Amino acid sequence: MMKIALMALLLAPLIGALINGFRWKKPDLKIAGFIGVTSCFISFLSAGFLFLSFLSQKKVDFLVSFFEWLNISSFKVSFSFLVDPLSVLMLLLITGVGFLIHVFSLYYMSHDDRPAKYFSYLNLFIFSMLVLVSADNLFLMFLGWEGVGLCSYLLIGFWFTDKQKAAAGMKAFIVNRIGDVGFLLGMFLLFQEFASLQFDVLSEGAPGSVHLSAVKWACFFLFMGVIGKSAQIPLYIWLPSAMAGPTPVSALIHAATMVTAGIYLIVRMHSLFILAPEVLTLISWVGAMTAMLAAFIACAQSDIKKVLAYSTVSQLGYMCVAAGLGAFTASLFHLLTHAFFKALLFLTAGSVIHALNGEQNIYNMGGLRKKLPFTWLCFLIGFLALIGLPPFSGFFSKDEILWSALASGQFAVFSLILLTAFVTAFYMSRLYILVFHGTSRLKSGVTPHEGGFFAKFPLGILATLSVLGGFIGIPHLISEYLPGHPPHLLAEYLKPIVIQKQFKGTHLAEGILMIGSSVFILSIVLISFWLYLKRQKTVFFLKKKNQTVFDALEAALGVDSFCYSKMVRPVLNVSYDLWWGVDVKMIQGFIILIQKKLLVLQELFESAQNGKTQSYILFMLLGLIICTLSVFLF
Q: Are 299 and 305 spatial neighbours (Cβ–Cβ below 8 Å)?
């Protein structure tokens, strides 16, 4: 039954992608949407069955093998999948959130003329992501890794007739390929060291049986892949540009699933990363700096989706910090809660954009609380979960990361992510106020309208998860005062396969951090409300006084323009020179020379074929004379 369920899990979205793919020109939303949503729902039911079956068994994991994929000398790869607590959790997350986003797409893409093509891409992405998280070896995981990269490119540039959107898809594809080079190098090193890419073989590598230097370099190169996929410094630049795609795509790929693939890779390979403490330190520092940088940039953005995009980069930084500290459970915990509230925020942003006929500038919004009440309530829940106020889900996962950083003695990293938490409270308050409160700044002729069932159903489910999702990881400090002393359910669930580093610290210090950070975050929210609603002139004055800083943040510190002028433009210039020198001058020049010689031969033969009988007789006599002479002379 496990094998049948896994086959249904994988094949349902693949078959859905193929059916819609063959009918990609069809404009009927109902049939395309039914195929796309149903196939994803079948995968979700299969994932639920696997989860329940797994809980009823005593085994820690199950290996489901279908066939041997490659067998080249000592390199053997099986098309097999690993069903364990970690993979099942990710399967539930991908199919569950994916199903809700498929449903929301029925509302958001209702006016698009290529729904079959859209749902085909979306189903193909779900299939690739399922392969990525359930593969039992790095090679098969890389197949899914590249599959989600391809689908990301296709979906970001879905409206490819717009050159800017097409360029954004290309940018995401190329930047991710840079990280993928690191992933490949890491795989090569691990195969050279272990003669296998199976996760069970790699996890059994003991410090005395492997060359630690090779393992450290392999972990470093794998982290390069993480930097690309999970948008960390310096390869984070693709994710804000990826907002060019449809908003449900942003929710699915760039908030809930694909960008977290790098975090999943670290957690899956954590037994090897533990052998490379220098790499773990690098991961925590890169994560902390990315979290802080992206948070500051988000403070000056005017596009509602770009604010959420930089917020995603920042929150991915939190996950990297936790993984780098050895708090792998905390990293995965934040991955789960972030999937709930960030998917909710993106979908509510999509609801706002759809209601305002495509408007994305937050300065052209305002006063939408009464006009879009359901969307407002859902956005408010996502907003409170993201900034980490209790009892919303983000509070539990964010606090666990902050406490891990403090208790581990990494005070510099702790200071960076604590500052990031405060900045997050400010820029999200700014976004929330400018969109839903204050006076209306809508353009004339725009009449906001709330979505129907297909819009509200996914938002309601995600809002509920954003409120209740954090209770799977109640900290001991709180649980000991609750009836029944509920355990940290996620930690207990992952305990058989995830090595969680133990941090030493007092309950007093944890309590002070928990209460103090929450009070400070709430204070920032209240101050933001006071400034943006009561003291708008003060905001305008402060902005004008610090215009240079604001402009720099609004331009994302000029990182994109720097990359284009110093990296992309020189490569294009060299490419043009090579094209002109090699292709035009050498290759085409040589072909033209040969063409001219052939033309001379053509003219010669044409003169022989002139249609005159006397000429043909002359050539025949000459041929006969030559043949006769050759017989007598040779």
A: no
